[in-house]
Amino acid sequence: MKTFTKGFTIALLLGLGFSAYAQKHVHGEGELLIAQEGNVLQMQFIIPAADALGFEHQAANSSDKNAINVLAQQLKNSSHAIDIKGQCILQSTENSLAHSHIEHDEHDEHDEHDEHDEHDEHDEHDHHNVKATYNFNCKTPVVGFSVTLFNLMPSLNALNVQWISNTGQGSTEVTRSNPVISWQS
């Protein structure tokens, strides 16, 4: 199951993720990638850290570290992110906060002789995302779900959603006021 899930993730990211990752980092908006094959359903949320945590910088104090730890624990429970219409059992979950705090890329080491490049590089690496992936085994076909993540993240207003399901593929936007996604089985 683990190998299939990793292959499934790679296929999801190659098939759908290219356009999602190519988009700009916009506060208040995130991405949701969904793949369903047979009884396996996988969802990956990609949310700007500013919306998920209230900051994007490296954890600077105990309050920041606590916010990261609290969110990491909350994201382990899929009901904080989604309410699935169907009989699905959570098989695994993973989030980018589980093993590390928000960190700048390794490229943050700068040559002190080139201030212009340092400034450009700093701007490029100040934007961070929080990712949460959920893998389910579903006894009945999933025909839709509601995004509950909006309740956990007050500044998150919309998610650009792309999916491949047993019945086809599509994309839509869900918002705080309309958090429901559905497709026919």
Summarize the helices and strands and which ones pair or pack:
Elements: H1 2-22, E1 29-37, E2 40-48, H2 49-52, H3 62-75, E3 82-85, E4 88-95, H4 115-125, E5 129-138, E6 144-147, H5 149-152, E7 158-165, E8 168-175, E9 180-182
What is the compact description of this entry?
The protein is α+β, with helices and mostly antiparallel strands and 185 residues long. Helix content is 29%, strand content 34%.
What can you tell me about this protein's structure?
The protein is an alpha+beta fold and 185 residues long. The protein has 5 helices and 9 strands; from the N terminus they run αββααββαββαβββ. The strands form 2 sheets. The chain has a 6-stranded mixed β-sheet. The longest helix is centred in the first third of the chain and has 21 residues, at 2-22. The protein is globular and about 45 Å long.
Instruction: Indicate the low-confidence ranges by residue numbers.
Output: 16-23, 101-124
Round the Cα radius of gyration to an integer and report it.
17 Å
Q: In angstroms, what separates the terminal alpha carbons? A: 24 Å
Tally of extended strands?
Answer: 9
Number of helices: 5
Strand order of the largest sheet: 4-5-2-1-7-8
Mean pLDDT: 77
Task: Kindly list the characteristics that best describe this protein.
single chain, 185 residues, alpha+beta, 6-stranded mixed β-sheet, 3-stranded antiparallel β-sheet, 5 helices, globular
